[in-house]
Structure prediction request, 476 residues.
Amino acid sequence: MIALRERALISLDSTPSLPNHVRIQFDPVRQAYAVLSPERVFWPNEVSLAILNRCDGRSPVSAIISSLATEYDAPEDEMTGDVTAFLQEWANKLLVRP
Amino acid sequence: MSEPLLPPIGMLAELTHRCPLQCPYCSNPTELMKANRELDTETWLYLFRQAADLGVLQVHLSGGEPTLRRDLEQLVAGLSSRGVYTNLITAGVGIAEGRMQALAEAGLDHVQLSFQGAHAETTERIGNHRGGHQKKLETARRVRAAGLPLTINAPIHRHNIEEVPDFIELALSLGAERLEIANVQYSGWALVNRDALMPDRAAVERQVAIVEEAQERLTGILNIDFVTPDYFAIYPKPCMGGWARDAFMVAPDGTVLPCHAAHTIRTLTFERFGDRSLAEIWTDSPAFNAFRGTDWMQEPCRGCERRELDWGGCRCQAMAIAGDPAATDPACVKSPVHARMGMLIEDALASARADRENGGRPEESFIYRRIAATTQLA
Ligand code: SF4
Ligand code: SF4
Prediction:
């Protein structure tokens, strides 16, 4: 029997991480951070990069949000929807492991 | 140039044309190179360093069968030391025990494993290789055991289009992250075998429905990339993301091309790495500049609002079907010769019917990919 993976939903308690087929690295040629994945290269903007860099597999989404709120001096409740939606979208594409 | 020249992101390295399989849709040229024309280890490593300097972030190591290169671990290590993302494109037969682990240790990032069928009988018939399916299953297991991410690649045509649901089950059962349902592109050997490979319209429509349903159902579980069949399309694909726009390929002997079928455009001359540097070829090669951007376009592409979405489609398909590499891709509904696509489908289906009426077995009408078979083509 195969244990089928299930689609994971991002909650405030999830501790997202980057799967091993996804890598963030600085590209000296373009002077920008790139997200490398099997078929595609993404060029995240500053906030997306800040979120992805905090996906260390230990920090819960709630902590990621507070840390971003402090760094960008924005109200936490306003950020919550955007950050969870972003993480869910990346999880749907298997680029973030919830 | 209508837009500034950017550095390339991706490179397909065809390390060898040697392959234990003989797929009749292989994208390799019909004139296959023997081993003695392949670049040696040092030259590939030098080329890879230049590619990284130029801005290449991803290298797809392909062939033929790239694992036939005994120096593959060294090549992977060379790329990995420069932070380049490495993707091994393999047919997964004849790979020695321990090799996947060694490649993973050398820094390999990802493996793409092809299955010619979802069932053993189909895989063996299409690849013309006995026992192939079992070997592939074993390779998939070793890829996972080595901790490497896995994509299953399923090239689709008339003889396996009904197996699409089974390919999805297969990818799930192997624990793959990605599945490519890739309808065969008719260049290379696939063009030679077009009549024997072309699916019918009803089968294509069933396939679209199955894939779309599965993409929805398996969101977040399995990424399904769907490469739709050009001959049934309304608009063309942005082939290679645009000619020499962000990717290129290198043939086993070091010839640098904008895509794997570009050599079919006989009016162009392609340069070899070693005669010139990769940077010089990328920026100055007349063949690379021939169809860059939009300046080369004729009507209807020139005035079309989609010209920077699909870049006029595939130059090689324009050459093969419209007889002019600067024509609109005939897959486009706006192409004056778009109707030829439908006629070619009809021709293929008629030949399939004739085959069946004569009691023929489909594999008997394949010209299998092999070096000696080239003589059959003349
Ligand atoms: S398509 Fe088939 S014959 Fe061609 S390289 Fe791949 S496995 Fe070998
Ligand atoms: S006319 Fe040319 S640019 Fe417009 S959709 Fe067709 S191929 Fe693309």
The longest helix of chain A spans residues 76-92. Chain A has three helices and three strands. Residues B 235-236, 300-301, 304, 306-307, 310, 312-313, 328-329, 332, 334 surround iron/sulfur cluster (ligand 2) (CB under 6 Å). The interface with chain B takes residues 2, 4-8, 19-21, 23, 25, 27, 29-30, 34, 36, 38-39, 41, 91-94 of chain A (CB under 8 Å).
